[in-house]
Design brief:
The complex is a heterodimer of chains A (177) and B (313). Chain A is of the alpha+beta class and 177 residues long. Chain A has 6 helices and 10 strands; from the N terminus they run βαββαββαββααβαββ. In chain A, the strands form 4 sheets. In chain A, strands 8-1-10-9 form a 4-stranded mixed beta sheet. With 313 residues, chain B is mostly helical. Chain B is globular. The chains are: A alpha+beta (177), B mainly alpha (313).
Chain lengths: 177, 313
């Protein structure tokens, strides 16, 4: 099993609903977030192009955050999801430094926190909160090894890219362009 | 063509707009670790070379700084932790891929060793010193007997510690300025140089100062070469590393790097040391202090500048 997400940059309108849904679902403290929207504006008027991306942890296959963790608090669970065990984390900040996507943050309670692909919802057969609420249905989630999953089907017929592939982390967020 | 990036819905403390999760504690810790490694390496080296008499300060007295430096450094590291009550988790596992785990364990070995080393010279420093407990007196006799073996272990651990202070940063592929294999050996050299400077400053013997100052000149030479080597490597690498190098070549860290690290921290003290060796009288504390400050500024610059470099996408 290999969980992954595809984000349709042509359908995303940048409403930020995924951000709010995540903050509510996961009790993210005020002023913090586990997912966010990036607006990439290229060109100048009248030839302007905007790419909207809903970004979060890439749950990398080759995850530097897990490798650099001195206590083993950062680890990989079933399906390739990168997680942090709060009561093993010492808050050293190494994983935050190691992430090319700045996807981790230091929780006010001291430990490091990040996106979990809502694995507590996956266990109940539900999709991640951000995917469930997206009003334009631009987020596709599922198992890459299952050819009939939403994410596999989305990647089959579209051009896509991943962010900073040169970082060598094998990220698992695919942006449909 | 113009390109702009906006990140909406995000203003996370210490991460936006620039990553700044490591503050003063980390450079202080890296600096003190390097300094301790430098002092211990040469204390071990001159013990093995049977130069305890000629190089008394380097072998016996400068190491008295080491336990303090290591404890202070570890305390700085502890202050950096944000989940402090769980710090003991570092010692419930060994993670070979994590430089920080290596460092934690190295310090676990080298800190007690530095205490034992210093304790074995306690009676030479204070002839009236008494350990009170007979078991401690026996332990002291044992430490004195095995000093040479300790010197070997100390040299080895000092090299691991010195290199580790650089690898801690260079292992982060996400921060282009740190991601160079030169950094480990560069921080080791800088640590050895600051260690020599500290011993030199403390020494009263002209002969000893001369030997240390010669060694220090070699270290400074290697350091300058490695810094140029590092910048050349960046300029020949990918765009993110070219930009990282430009922080020091016209960017915001140019003045502090060239003035405080290169000129005042390396070139000027080296010139003073050469003049001293040529027979001019130069108070030893001037080059020593400059080298010590230069090393500290270098750690601060690398930690601060490295955090603002990142991949672009």
């Amino acid at each position: 099993m290999r969980y992954a997400m595809a984000i349709d940059t042509k359908k995303c309108v940048g409403c930020g609903d995924c951000v709010v849904a995540c903050q509510t679902e996961n009790n993210v403290p005020h002023g913090y977030c586990r997912d966010w929207i990036v607006e990439n504006v290229v060109g100048s008027y009248p030839n302007v192009e905007i790419e909207l991306r809903s970004e979060r942890c890439n749950h990398c296959d080759n995850s530097p955050c897990v490798r650099c963790c001195p206590t083993g608090a950062s680890h990989i669970v079933e399906g390739g999801i990168v997680k942090v065990t709060h009561n093993m984390c010492i808050g050293c900040g190494a994983c935050i430094e190691s992430c090319p996507y700045d996807a981790r943050y230091s929780h006010p309670d001291g430990y490091v926190d990040k996106c979990t692909f809502c694995d507590h919802r996956l266990a109940k057969g539900q999709s991640p909160a951000c995917v469930a609420v997206c009003p334009t249905n631009c987020l596709y989630f599922g198992d890459l090894e299952d050819p009939n999953s939403d994410v596999s089907k989305a990647l089959k017929n579209r051009k896509w890219k991943v962010l900073a592939p040169e970082a060598g982390t094998k990220p698992q967020l695919y942006f449909l362009t | 063509m113009k390109e702009e990036l906006f990140v909406s819905g995000r203003n996370i403390p210490n991460i936006d707009p620039y990553l700044n999760i490591w503050h003063w504690q980390i450079p202080i810790y890296l600096y003190l670790g390097g300094l301790a490694a430098g002092i211990m390496f040469f204390a071990g080296y001159f013990t093995i070379m049977r130069k305890e008499k000629d190089m008394a300060t380097t072998v016996k007295w400068a190491p008295f700084l080491v336990p303090g430096a290591l404890v202070l450094g570890l305390f700085a590291l502890f202050l950096d932790l944000k989940h402090q009550l769980y710090f003991w988790r570092l010692y419930t596992t060994i993670r070979f891929e994590s430089p920080m785990s290596w460092g934690a364990w190295t310090l676990m070995l080298i800190t007690p060793l530095s205490f034992v080393w210093v304790a074995s010279y306690m009676k030479e420093l204070l002839p009236k010193w008494d350990w009170k407990l007979s078991i401690l007196n026996k332990a002291e006799a044992l430490a004195i007997k095995y000093r040479k073996s300790m010197a070997w272990v100390m040299m080895l651990l000092a090299v691991v510690l010195g290199v580790y202070t650089g690898i801690l940063l260079s292992a982060f592929n996400a921060r282009p300025l740190w991601n160079t294999s030169v950094l480990g050996i560069l921080f080791l050299t800088s640590g050895l140089s600051t260690g020599l400077a500290a011993s030199m400053w403390m020494s009263k013997s002209k002969y000893e100062r001369k030997v240390l100052s010669r060694l220090d000149l070699i270290m400074i030479g290697i350091e300058l070469f490695l810094i140029i080597h590092m910048l050349m490597g960046f300029l020949a690498a990918s765009q993110v590393q070219v930009e990282a190098a430009h922080l020091f070549l016209g960017g915001e860290f140019t003045v502090v790097f060239w003035v405080f690290v290169i000129i005042l921290g390396l070139v000027f003290p080296a010139t003073l040391e050469v003049l001293e060796l040529k027979g001019f009288h130069i108070p030893v504390w001037i080059p020593a202090l400059l080298i010590l400050i230069g090393g500290l500024v270098f750690r601060f610059v690398m930690v601060e500048a490295g955090q603002i470099t990142r991949f672009l996408y």
